[in-house]
Write the structure tokens for this entry.
Amino acid sequence: MNIRVVWLIQARFEREWLWSLLSGPDVQIEEHADTNKIYPPGSIFIINSSVDYEAYFEKYEQAGIEYAAIHLSDEYYKDSCRFYDHDACLWVARNYWHPALSKRSKVLTFGLGWKNGYMEAAAQVAPPPANWKDRPITVSFAGNIHHTFRRDFVQMFATVEPNKFHLTYDGFDSKNGLDIVSYRSLMNQSKYVLCPIGHCNIDCFRIYEALEAGAVPITLSATNIQRWLYWDALLGCAVPWIAQTSIENCYNELQKQLENGEAPGDETAQVWLAAKQKWAREFRSKIEEMQNAK
């Protein structure tokens, strides 16, 4: 099966993750990035708000050329979704689950995934201990403290030992941050990973990077902006990792698990594997439907 994937954006932050969902033993991906041409029916376009995708897709709608889109980075739920209603638009895969958008028949919602190079880094570091309980670090966090919520989140767990925190204060992709190999190594050695919100959204890449390394995320389950149980909605099941409505509740749940000797690592790994397999099947189903419609 051949699929044509066209980057309308410059960034390739999610490429490794997307390819893990789109690829398969019988799949050949043709990768393109020329935004000045009109592609044949059945093309899949990768977009975010950095480009005027509505004007671009209007050309396909007017010409009756069917297409699909992977809509990334709509963290604030403010991106235009007018093209979702195009007759020529067969389906849209997007991250950041939202109750209204998820009801649209054309929409498939999937997780943010990990940053580019994260899987390659796994081959350069020691693998995680076979037994989740043997991981030497109880709780870790590596990232930028760019708002008070993150500061409070990290401070709450500072008394949990052994811990390892690598904090930066100079924005995204900090020059003082861990390189990707060191970051993957930290994840591999951690039982729990703190995953506070990004700018405003409950979802963040760190959650999936923790999951891919076999660690257990600690995150919020809902916020004032996202009043639904986000993870249950995205994955379609009650998640086994720590997801509570407040930082204090997250801390209390961790203390309870530590006192009771609970080990949610295996169950978390099973749910994560099932989620990846589900999203890959859904992508394949959409692609097969599109190709059969040619």
The longest strand covers residues 137-144.
